[in-house]
Design a protein that fits this description.
The chain is an alpha/beta fold and 273 residues long. It has 9 helices and 8 strands.
């Protein structure tokens, strides 16, 4: 259910959100520099008494700006969030788009080392996220504490590192957006990881796949879904699994899923001070 009308009116009157850029961020755990683009909802500046949930997204250059996105097609994530917030359909939230570093993307987004493709630096990327970027963002913005207010998301290899880090750091990340995950990596390594992972808490997970992606992609996504169900996730309650008919492996396709996953992961809740 949307927010009550008086809250929805306040959110709508606050206007659209804004983007704040942090450039050339350096880490002690990984080489190179990376930019971050942070979406801040319109209500943020109107209500300095409020704190907000946060969503950390991989491949951040593809989210907000066609000038930086792959193929010039972006997710329109800021516009989608603006629309849903103004209609009271989701919590006003902060979205952190962490840019990938190009050639290092495969290495940083993969949790194991494959024989021919290499990779396997997701643990170091995780340390960058939880030990550096997360505290930095919390020092710059009014963020609600706790895993229940903290999400992580991505698509393709970005979704692979999302499900991996989301389960490895389940006490930190309570909401996961896993779009078209690269379950194929290293002979379904992630499925085996889920099956063997001991968890005291279960993050809320959006998991999807398009039917027009690469061969075996739907089959792989189903294997990941089944592994999660065997570990206790339940459809509707804490897991949404969807196969999008005709959905492709592209920025345009993921843009169409932005609204649905935001509604599932960040449904209306009380505005928190």
């Amino acid at each position: 259910m949307p927010y009550p009308s008086e809250i929805t009116t306040e959110l709508a009157q606050a206007g659209p959100g804004r983007l704040q850029k942090f450039e050339r961020y350096r880490s002690q755990f990984l080489p190179g520099e990376r930019d971050m683009a942070v979406y801040v909802p319109g209500i943020y500046d109107k209500r300095p008494d409020l704190r907000f949930p946060v969503l950390y997204m991989q491949d951040g250059q593809n989210l907000f700006d066609p000038a930086t996105s792959f193929g010039g097609v972006h997710w329109r994530l800021g516009e989608t969030a603006d629309d849903l917030i103004s209609r009271g359909e989701i919590q006003p939230l902060i979205i952190v788009g962490i840019y990938n570093t190009g050639k290092q993307r495969i290495r940083e987004y993969t949790p194991s080392r494959a024989k021919k493709l290499g990779g396997g630096s997701a643990d170091r990327y995780g340390r960058l996220l939880v030990s550096e970027i997360k505290p930095f963002i919390e020092s710059q913005f009014r963020i609600l504490p706790g895993a229940e207010n903290t999400g992580i998301g991505g698509s393709s290899l970005g979704a692979l590192v999302t499900i991996y880090l989301g389960l490895r750091f389940a006490r930190m990340f309570g909401r996961l957006a896993v779009l078209s995950p690269s379950v194929w990596w290293d002979r379904q390594w992630i499925v085996k990881y889920v099956a063997g992972r001991r968890l005291n808490t279960r993050p809320r997970i959006w998991l999807d796949v398009g039917t027009q992606e690469a061969a075996h992609t739907v089959e792989d996504a189903r294997a990941l879904r089944d592994a999660l169900v065997k570990k206790g996730w339940r459809h509707v309650n804490d897991l949404h699994y969807e196969e999008i008919e005709g959905g492709q492996h592209s920025e345009a396709a993921w843009a169409q899923r932005a609204g649905p996953f935001l509604r599932f992961l960040f449904p209306p809740d009380k505005l928190a001070v």
